[in-house]
């Protein structure tokens, strides 16, 4: 657990002083709990030590007298520092005749689990949006929120998400229900979902979707191409992809790129028409040298000069939707019937749709 921003610590108690397992199961959240059950779970509180208390004061030679799990759960616990000191002192205390632990009743603050805050924020956003869409008559949106709530009763709050190239923590799901900027975790999840849809489209088998790190490999390859390093093992993925596209085994490749660590753009390279498509939701031109890298790579594998065109993309009207809109532009280009262009006013709804898709993939 993470307390008041402190780094998580592993506390080990002497077996003779540990609470029974059935009590621990009641006072601490089990990993099998669903997200909604986790949100409603009452975590213990932390004592704020207002005066100095010696370690010896926490040990007692009396037999344990409190066996009610609810009372234990309602009682404040010591700070992480005190727990660490107690952990180191238990063996000596038992040798001196200690049979139980006791603690003082002091002013308390709530214990915050590191995974609780993002889910609380997500739940609050869902509640606000449900009320807003209720007032606006958005039946589809309200139905979507209900599907999200139903899905959250089916997944554990702990562990990782199954069905993706990288097993990310389940708590990353919460971001989709907020206005937080989508990170590489979420962009790769969306790209993964798109690639799997393409695999189920026979007419789209020659379309390749890469993860968000692909452009970084191309940029590095361009920087060292004169040295011959591009032939090395480090660039095997970029090299084999280029060869496959040039030989006709593939026709189109798409990926997302992070610009200046704060903005997502989309790139589609069509080898059949020798065209590089670039999409930016704020309609900015590519950074200096960006297209140079792509032209070098395509020419290296095909010997052809590629035309530059703009990728059709929804104009961004907020500070957080570039990740969703760039992905949508890419997906719309390769599978227009399944991915219509998102309206700028619908970005929050579509984030929830992605969240539901990720949960479905995890469950299935």
TrEMBL record:
Any one GO biological process: proteolysis
Matches recorded under InterPro entries: Papain-like_cys_pep_sf, Peptidase_C48_C
GO MF term list: cysteine-type peptidase activity; ubiquitin-like protein peptidase activity
Domain Ubiquitin-like protease family profile per the UniProt entry, residue ranges: 166-333
The keyword Electron transport appears for this protein: no
Any Pfam family the entry gives: Peptidase_C48
Keywords tagged on the record: Hydrolase, Protease
Domain of life of the native organism: Eukaryota
Family that this chain belongs to: Belongs to the peptidase C48 family.
Protein name: Ubiquitin-like protease family profile domain-containing protein
